[in-house]
Specification:
It is built from seven helices and seven strands. It is an alpha/beta fold. Helix 2 runs parallel beside helix 3 and helix 3 packs parallel to helix 5. Keywords: Oxidoreductase.
C-alpha cells in the first residue's frame, strides 16, 4: 500500500498479532494506511497484515534480531503496538518460578526490549515514532491472577517512564488499558468470576476487540501527537 503521493506507507509492528485484540489492531492500523507487520509465537494474523512473522517474544535476543529483520525487509517502523501477553488463571500459591518468569518475560520484557530496539533505530535515524502498550484493568486494580496483574501494573509503570524518557527524541509512549474484552483470552477466566465482573460493568457488557483497536488507532495517529506517558481506559466504566 502507498499513499496518494507515492511515498511509502508507514510501517507498524503489532506483537501478539494472532490474538483477538492483535487481529483487531492489525485491521484498524491497516485501514488507517499502515503497512502492518504482525508478530506472534504462532501464525494466524488478521489477513490485513502485510507480513506475518513468528518469534519468541520472551527472548530478548530474539526480539533484537526480529527488529533488525523487520527494518531490513520492510523498512524502519514508526509505530509499535506491544500487545503480546500471557494470561493464566492460577492461584498465587500454585505459581512456580518458571510460571512467574514466563509471564513477566512476555508481558513486560517483550514490551521493554521491543521498545528499546525500535527506539534505538528511530533515534539513530533522527525520526519520531509512537509506541502503544496494551495494559489491563488488572494492572490498575489488581487481580486474583497475581502474576498477570503484577505484569500489567509493570506495563503501566513502564509506559509512564518511557513516555517521559523518550519524549525528547520525539517518540511517544502510551498505553491502552482494556477491561473485560470478548476474546479467546477472556474465555479462560473462570465462569463465576467472569459473571461477577460483568455484573459490575456500568455499561453492562464485555467490550469488543475492535473497541480496543480504535483506541490504539487514535494513539498512533496525528490526533494524538500531544499525548504521551498516558493510559487510556477502555473498560465500560469498570473500576
Amino acid at each position: 500500500m502507498s499513499t496518494t503521493r507515492g511515498t511509502p506507507s508507514p510501517v507498524a509492528v503489532v506483537t501478539g498479532g494472532a490474538g483477538g485484540i492483535g487481529r483487531a489492531v492489525t485491521a484498524a492500523l491497516a485501514d488507517a494506511g499502515h503497512r502492518v507487520v504482525s508478530v506472534d509465537r504462532t501464525a494466524g494474523a488478521d489477513p490485513a497484515a502485510h507480513a506475518e512473522l513468528v518469534a519468541d517474544l520472551g527472548d530478548p535476543e530474539a526480539v533484537t534480531a526480529l527488529f533488525r529483520r523487520i527494518e531490513q525487509e520492510h523498512g524502519l517502523p514508526e509505530s509499535l503496538v506491544n500487545n503480546a501477553g500471557i494470561y493464566e488463571a492460577r492461584d498465587f500459591l500454585d505459581y512456580t518460578p518458571e510460571d512467574y518468569r514466563r509471564v513477566l518475560d512476555v508481558n513486560v520484557g517483550a514490551a521493554f526490549f521491543a521498545t528499546q530496539a525500535l527506539a534505538r533505530a528511530l533515534i539513530a535515524a533522527d525520526r519520531p515514532g509512537s509506541v502503544v502498550n496494551i495494559a489491563s484493568i488488572s494492572g490498575q486494580s489488581g487481580s486474583p491472577d497475581t502474576a498477570y496483574g503484577a505484569s500489567k501494573g509493570a506495563v503501566i509503570a513502564l509506559t509512564h517512564s518511557l513516555g517521559r524518557s523518550l519524549a525528547p527524541h520525539g517518540i511517544r509512549v502510551n498505553a491502552v488499558s482494556p477491561g473485560l474484552i470478548d476474546t479467546p483470552m477472556a474465555a479462560r477466566i473462570p465462569a463465576q468470576r467472569a459473571a461477577e465482573y460483568r455484573a459490575r460493568i456500568p455499561l453492562g457488557r464485555f467490550g469488543a476487540a475492535a473497541e480496543v483497536a480504535s483506541a490504539v488507532r487514535y494513539l498512533t495517529g496525528a490526533d494524538a501527537h500531544y499525548v504521551t506517558a498516558s493510559v487510556l481506559d477502555v473498560n465500560g466504566g469498570l473500576h
